[in-house]
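Exercise 7.
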Amino acid sequence: MDPYEILYHPYVTEKTMNFMDKNNAIEFVVKRDADKKQIKKAVEEMFEVKVKEINTRITKRGKHAVVTFMPEFKAEDIGMRIGIF
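Solution. The predicted structure, written as tokens, is:
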């Protein structure tokens, strides 16, 4: 499956920006029927990083995935590459 069909866009709020700094994680809006393995594979393929952990939740606005990266990869660097800042 194409990773661009699974990850829609980053979800950026003040809370998620603080989460990026403190927990080395970025939150994405993802395809509703995607599972954690598919999300992990899509993130690793798109950004050439290693994922430590994924937490998902379903809201009124869709499915959100908080992706925590391994310590050798910085969420701030990935955020710069995708235009969060």
